[in-house]
Every structure is written in structure tokens, then in C-alpha cells.
Amino acid sequence: MLVIVLACGFCTPAVADSPLVSAIRVEGTAARTKIVAEISAETGFSVKTLPAPYRVVIDVPNVQFDLPSGIGRKKRGLVQQIRYGKSPEGQSQIVIDTTGPVLIEKSFAAGRSGKRKARIVVELAATTPEVFAMALSKDSESAEASEASSPEFTASLPLFLPKWLAPSTDKRKVIVIDPGHGGIDPGAVSPGRTMEKDVVFAFAQALKEALDATEQFEVRMTRDSDVFVSLRERVKLAHEAKADLFIAVHADTVRGQTVTGTTLYTLSEKASDAEAEALAQKENKVDVIAGIDLGEQNPQVADILIDLVQRESKNHAVLFSRKALDQLRGITTMTGKPLRSAGFMVLKAPDIPSVLIELGYLSSRDDEKKLLSAAWRRKMSQALTRAVVKHFADGAVAAASP
Ligand code: ZN
Q1: What is the mean pLDDT of residues 238-260?
Q2: What is the Å distance from ligand 1's center to 368 Cα?
Q3: Domain containing residue 120: CATH number
Q4: What is the number of structural domains in the chain?
């Protein structure tokens, strides 16, 4: 790897009173790396990360470099190589090409103390491209906000960080179960007057029991009795609970008795097929029935940051729905297209992986029988619980590793 000395042909000769960088040390691992630049006198600096290629740039007002040749060529920890020299603007720069996306965990300048020289210290931590992008957009916001303030700032983790990107903690994952409908809204109704709101509630209770039994999760329900809860309220509740996974439970009805089986839905702006679209519209109408204006989309969704997070949440939701399908297949009949997507209102929490399970069709005598069977509900709940356990165990959700 070549060390490119930036425009050094134009370097001004060393001036007695401009500080001198005499060493750059790199210590650490592929997860965390510290860069120490030894300097003859303490100096202000600023540091930022840049993408494509991933790099960290330290700007120092005016220093000279007196470094052994070949320095910075060796890959170490997160550092691919180090370049240094004058920037086109006449500033001195140290450019650290990194092995991938990094966050600046800490950066500071220290004065001379005893035998130790003055130094600039920058500590890097590996991160994901998603978090890097978020940190970058946060930085440019705060840089605009505090322009011309101190040249020295420390980039840090963005304030807004979805839980599955945040550093892992021992805290139990929070699962929010959302039994559809309730109160004045019965949802689908079978010819025999079985109501969706009742069977999905019974199912949600069984699922909560099965999840609780693992002692691995904190489980909440969006309603714990036969009451009406608006769709927006359900999403808000999941947010406040800081849910790691949101599972909405429904049952559908169609004309005729022949359509049976379970389907898993994730969110998408474009429905995977006309049937999925029609169902989403039907489920979304709930609030209109109850006289609540849905209004336009959640205004947050427009925000780029939220959009990015939502894309990631969707990916996680899809990963989970595949695991759920694996588990449910052996237990029950799935529909011909068991994984679908559509614009369900209730799946629109931007930072929470969310899935909607249509357990079956109340228009089918067979499905109705299943839905009314406590044994079937228990079997299904246990299968879904296995999927949840597997999902989190696989670390798909704790995607903090690079
Ligand atoms: Zn429903």
C-alpha cells in the first residue's frame, strides 16, 4: 500500500514555531483502534469521518511532519493506511484510510506531561454502514448548527439509534403482541358469528404465555381486554415500549369456504399482489369505522433517517417472517403465497421490525375450527416462539458487529 503524501511538493519549509508531528502510533484491534499523533506542542484540531472510501480526516491548523519513511503503510486494527500532508486549503491533514465504516468514539488533544509529548488521540470503533451513515448525517447537522464554534469536536453515536443497532445490553428483548380489532370493531366475522377480535385475542394470550415461558423476553400486548384501540395508538404503544419486535395478529374472511391457511405479512409501500393490497385496505379501515381520521402518512416517514431505519426494520421483519414460516409449516396449513407484503398501517413503526400474521380465514369452516381450538393456538404459539428465539439468537437483530 502506497503512502500518498498530499501535495508535499508545496510543503513550506519547517518553521521554528510551527508544531512538529514526530510519530503516529496505531494500537488496537479490528473492533477498536487508537491512533496517537505525537506532536511538539499542543494544538487544536478537528476530526471527521468520510465515506467512499471510508476514512477519518484529522485537520490540524499548521504543523510540519517529520515522520520516518514508510510510516502508515502497515494495516493495523481498523487502519488500512495513513496519509498526511497539506490539504489544498493549506491546512495540515492526517488521513486515516479505514478497513470499513468506523465511529469516532473519542478524540482529544493533550499537552506535554513529564516525558510524554503533546499528542492528538483519536479512538475508533468498527460499526455498520447504516450506523456510519446515520452518524454522518447527524454530524453534518450539528456541524451546520455550530459552525465557527470550537474547531474541535468529537463525533459520537447519533442520538437516535434503533435498538437493534445499539450496543447490545443484557436487557431482555421486548416483544409487543398486537391482537387486531376489539371493542366496537369485531374485525372479520364467520357465518357462525365467530369474531376475529375474540380469536386473535385468545391467540395473542397463548403467544404471550409461550414467550413468557422462555423467560427471555419482556412481552406486552396492545390491548389486554375487549376494547377498541386505534391503529396509531397501537404503533405508539410499541414505540413507548421500545419494542424489538412487533407481531400483529389477525384472521381474514373471503367469499367461499375453499380458501384456507396462514399468511405472514411485512410492510411495503407496494403490495406484493392485489389480494394483499385489498386486505391491507380492509385492515387499515378499522380506524375509519371507529370515526378516527387516519390522515396522511406518519410525517416522520418523510425523514431520510427514519426512511433508512425503516428499510432496515423491514429487512429484519422479512428475516423473522422467514423463520416463522419455517416453524409454522410443519404445524399448520399455509396459504399458497405464505410470505407477502402490503401497506398495513399497523406495521409502520419506522424503527421496529414488524410482522402481521393472518392466522386463517373465518370464512372457512376448517380454519374457524382451528382458530377456536386452544390446542391449535398453543401449538402455533409455540412454533412462533421458536422462531422468535431463533431470530434473536442468530443475532440478526443485534447486528452491531461489522
Ligand atoms: Zn383483522
Answers
A1: 89
A2: 14
A3: 2.60.40.3500
A4: 2
